[in-house]
């Protein structure tokens, strides 16, 4: 596969150099040890400045790289492409630990809002950027993390940067590499080339590739590709495989039309959402009674034939109920909430959309009904009934009528038959409605749930929790709290501390007690995690991302099947002291000041665990979790 | 319907080594020609956008190496091709005789659903050489072969002069348009909870 051959002698040069990669990597990765080289006149490996044609860009990035062939004798067409990159030739690589090149940092990766909210801020522009780029553009080559989806015939399906069609040649190159290895009855998993890792994931007729120089572990990048694939399955189900069986030429891009934003938002979340590597979900902190109340409403809906009912605030769970024996995997929750939050249409109108939960059943659709109560809080009902869709409009009209008519005795506290009768009566104004029909029952239950939630204090409590934030390292109790019950201990403690602004000012560079900067606690039994809010000195999005990447590395090393499992890890570098502690019940990841004392750090971790235990009723969804089935 | 959308066509170029496959592509995509011969290693990939009858096409051109030792790249390479271009040198009889092998090999490897009607295009290249005096394969002979294989469109080209190259590739787009599959509704199953055979996946299916 020459990407840019340039002299007659290069004829003899094999592009796939089967030499083992210089630095051995853990055996269990079963690496296909391939070194991709580019042929140039001298036959030297990796020295060519010309990526040419659609060659794989595996070179370490070079400052001040100039466009154009370095070998003047070249007669190849390959290096002569790339006129589109002229405008970006001045771009430089950012030193920041960032996925983009420096010039795009501002519009690209400013992300976390700060305390109490770890979701993308307004500064992150959703959707695909840099569509004008292709593989000949210098700026494109310098992006730190590329994601590609392509079909087994080499047709592009998705690219994080650049226009898919313009990248058709590049996509073909990726397919050629994969099929070359396949031809040798092997499977390509990883190519290392300088600072770059090229990670491959093959899922039947779908190929996923990540090219990254972010130094994330192979397992992390592979996990991200798995999620990307899961997101595609969520939108289309695995039935796409059948389309490829019938017709290898099948072009699935039309089926994915308009979903760029879903993928780009998922890729963005790899930077800020620990759920993407912890495989656990997180809850919005709420008083136990409030969460119970929300759960009771959802349970009523679930009993009427809904498979899953979720009340969520951004990507945090308020409450969640599953029908008997049905369990929802945290990855499915992540992909579902990403799909809903990134698709603008769910916000602007109540929507009913077919979705597939890849971990639940990757082959078939469910139907998701989504209703936003406010900008961040939404109710999701997952049903198996597609005809419910056709009743939606009627029910909606009916609901509006009920809301408008204050004279109507709509006894929502008494969610019984009178309520059903009322809805049926009103609905009958438009067309006959059979109250025994399961779909009708379902929608009536939904109406009831909505009204109950609107009238209860659940939604206002959700708002309050959003504003107040979650656990903060500064609030870590110095002495174990008395075991007496303290309702909503999180917020009560907040009152005891100084106001956040003054507080933040005074402790810059110090963090919490004993230099604790941040922690994540993951309950293994509940499949949930809680992460402390970010506070100084981990305040900028860059620092937060760097910390998450450090956690990611820690997570991978703790879960490494080859050398693990480990119970504790204490690691000190110039940025942090990282302490990880894994037991049967939980995993704790904590970051400290790099000068923190080891003994004190361990003691602090014990206190964090005690603290989490003390407030577990507020930060975790207890009992009602479908995982307890 | 969705006929306005851009179409991506995978085009495979096959033929003996030295017949000018790369030069044809280079002439077509970059409008450049070089007399210097350099063998293609494995395959080269090029992208060209073309407009035809109001529709935008992206041609993803797979320029393969003619040498036999690269043929092991095989099956996966040809998978999902929309069109196959067979190239021979009008001055070399052997390269014409081999067209049959190339065609058969492609049909075996790619195993298209309808091999009889799979869109091929045959190009007789290097018509410019020696003013046509060294030519050994007549147009008539080539056309007869094409007719016998289900009326494959035939073009005489010169990558050097740029003669007929554009027309040949336009024909590829035309062919693909003709063969565009009917849009089918995408209708995956819905989970049936009541049926008792609800699949409960507990882990990753990989």
From TrEMBL, chain A:
<protein>
    <submittedName>
        <fullName>Vacuolar fusion protein MON1-like</fullName>
    </submittedName>
</protein>
From TrEMBL, chain B:
<keyword id="KW-0653">Protein transport</keyword>
<protein>
    <recommendedName>
        <fullName>Ras-related protein Rab7</fullName>
    </recommendedName>
</protein>
<dbReference type="Pfam" id="PF00071">
    <property type="entry name" value="Ras"/>
</dbReference>
<dbReference type="GO" id="GO:0005774">
    <property type="term" value="C:vacuolar membrane"/>
</dbReference>
<keyword id="KW-0547">Nucleotide-binding</keyword>
<dbReference type="GO" id="GO:0003924">
    <property type="term" value="F:GTPase activity"/>
</dbReference>
<keyword id="KW-0488">Methylation</keyword>
<dbReference type="GO" id="GO:0015031">
    <property type="term" value="P:protein transport"/>
</dbReference>
<keyword id="KW-0342">GTP-binding</keyword>
<keyword id="KW-0472">Membrane</keyword>
<keyword id="KW-0636">Prenylation</keyword>
<keyword id="KW-0449">Lipoprotein</keyword>
<keyword id="KW-0813">Transport</keyword>
<comment type="similarity">
    <text>Belongs to the small GTPase superfamily. Rab family.</text>
</comment>
<dbReference type="InterPro" id="IPR027417">
    <property type="entry name" value="P-loop_NTPase"/>
</dbReference>
<dbReference type="InterPro" id="IPR005225">
    <property type="entry name" value="Small_GTP-bd"/>
</dbReference>
<dbReference type="GO" id="GO:0012505">
    <property type="term" value="C:endomembrane system"/>
</dbReference>
<dbReference type="InterPro" id="IPR001806">
    <property type="entry name" value="Small_GTPase"/>
</dbReference>
<dbReference type="GO" id="GO:0005525">
    <property type="term" value="F:GTP binding"/>
</dbReference>
């Amino acid at each position: 596969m020459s990407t840019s051959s340039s002299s007659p002698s290069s004829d003899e040069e094999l592009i796939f150099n089967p030499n083992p990669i210089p630095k051995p990597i853990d055996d269990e990765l079963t690496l296909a040890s391939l070194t991709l080289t580019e042929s140039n006149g001298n036959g030297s490996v990796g020295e060519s400045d010309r990526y040419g044609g659609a060659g794989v860009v595996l070179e370490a990035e070079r400052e001040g790289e100039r466009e154009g062939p370095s070998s003047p004798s070249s007669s190849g067409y390959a290096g002569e492409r790339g006129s589109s990159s002229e405008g970006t030739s001045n771009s430089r690589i950012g030193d920041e630990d960032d996925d983009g090149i420096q010039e795009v940092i501002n519009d690209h990766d400013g992300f976390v809002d700060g305390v109490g909210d770890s979701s993308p801020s307004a500064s992150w522009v959703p959707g695909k950027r840099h569509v004008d780029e292709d593989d000949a553009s210098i700026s494109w080559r310098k992006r730190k993390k590329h994601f590609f989806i392509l079909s087994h015939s080499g047709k592009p399906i998705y690219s994080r940067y650049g226009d898919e069609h313009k990248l058709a040649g590049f996509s073909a190159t990726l397919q050629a590499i994969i099929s070359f290895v396949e031809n040798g009855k092997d499977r390509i998993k990883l190519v290392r080339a300088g600072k770059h890792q090229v990670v491959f994931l093959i899922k039947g007729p779908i190929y996923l590739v990540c090219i990254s120089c972010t130094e994330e572990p192979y397992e992390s990048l592979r996990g991200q590709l798995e999620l990307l694939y899961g997101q595609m399955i969520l939108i289309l189900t695995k039935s796409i495989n059948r389309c490829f069986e019938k017709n290898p030429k099948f072009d699935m891009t039309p089926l994915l039309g308009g979903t760029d934003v879903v993928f780009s938002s998922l890729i963005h979340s790899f930077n800020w959402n620990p759920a993407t590597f912890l495989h656990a979900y997180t809850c919005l902190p709420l008083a136990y009674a409030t969460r119970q109340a929300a759960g009771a409403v959802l349970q009523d809906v679930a009993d009427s034939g809904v498979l899953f009912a979720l009340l969520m605030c951004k990507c945090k769970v308020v409450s969640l109920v599953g029908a008997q024996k049905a369990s929802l995997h945290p990855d499915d929750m992540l992909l579902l909430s990403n799909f809903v939050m990134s698709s603008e249409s769910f916000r602007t109108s109540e929507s009913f959309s077919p979705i597939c939960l890849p971990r639940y059943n990757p082959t078939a659709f469910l139907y998701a009904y989504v209703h936003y109560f406010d900008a961040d809080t939404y109710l999701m009902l997952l049903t198996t009934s597609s005809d419910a869709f056709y009743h939606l409009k009627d029910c909606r009209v009916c609901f509006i009528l009920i809301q408008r008519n204050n004279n109507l005795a709509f006894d929502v506290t008494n969610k019984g038959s009178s309520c059903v009768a009322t809805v049926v009566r009103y609905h009958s104004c438009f067309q006959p409605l059979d109250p025994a029909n399961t779909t009708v029952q379902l929608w009536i239950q939904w109406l009831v749930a909505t009204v109950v939630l609107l009238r209860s204090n659940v939604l206002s409590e959700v708002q309050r929790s959003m504003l107040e934030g979650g656990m903060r390292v500064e609030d870590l109790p110095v002495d174990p709290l008395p075991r007496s019950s303290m309702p909503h201990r999180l917020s009560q403690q907040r009152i005891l501390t100084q106001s956040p602004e003054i507080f933040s000012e005074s402790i810059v560079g110090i963090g919490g007690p004993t230099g604790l900067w941040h922690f994540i606690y993951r309950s293994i039994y509940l499949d949930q995690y809680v992460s402390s809010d970010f506070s100084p000195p981990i305040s900028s999005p860059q620092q937060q991302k760097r910390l998450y990447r450090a956690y990611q590395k820690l997570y991978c090393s703790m879960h490494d099947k080859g050398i693990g499992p480990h119970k504790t890890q204490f690691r000190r570098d110039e940025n942090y002291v990282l302490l990880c502690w894994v037991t049967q019940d939980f995993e704790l990841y904590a970051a400290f000041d790099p000068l923190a004392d080891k003994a004190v750090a361990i003691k602090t971790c014990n206190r964090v665990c005690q603290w989490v235990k003390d407030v577990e009723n507020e930060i975790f969804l207890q009992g009602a979790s479908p995982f307890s089935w | 319907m969705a006929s306005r959308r851009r179409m991506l066509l995978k085009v495979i170029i096959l033929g003996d080594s030295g017949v000018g496959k790369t030069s044809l592509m280079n002439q077509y995509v970059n409008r450049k020609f070089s007399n210097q011969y350099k063998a293609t290693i494995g395959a080269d990939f090029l992208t060209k956008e073309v407009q035809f009858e109001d529709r935008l096409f992206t041609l993803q051109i797979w320029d393969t190496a003619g040498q036999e030792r690269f043929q092991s790249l095989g099956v996966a390479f040809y998978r999902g091709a929309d069109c196959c271009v067979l190239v021979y040198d009008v001055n070399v009889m052997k390269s014409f005789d081999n067209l049959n092998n190339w065609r058969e090999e492609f049909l075996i490897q790619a195993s298209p659903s309808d091999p009889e009607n799979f869109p091929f295009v045959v190009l007789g290249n290097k018509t410019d050489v020696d003013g046509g005096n060294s030519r050994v394969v007549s147009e008539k002979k080539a056309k007869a072969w094409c007719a016998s294989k289900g009326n494959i469109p035939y073009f005489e080209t010169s990558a050097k002069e740029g003669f007929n190259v554009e027309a040949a590739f336009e024909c590829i787009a035309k062919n693909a348009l003709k063969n565009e599959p009917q849009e089918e509704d995408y209708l995956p199953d819905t989970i049936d909870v009541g049926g008792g055979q609800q699949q409960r996946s507990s882990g990753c299916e990989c």
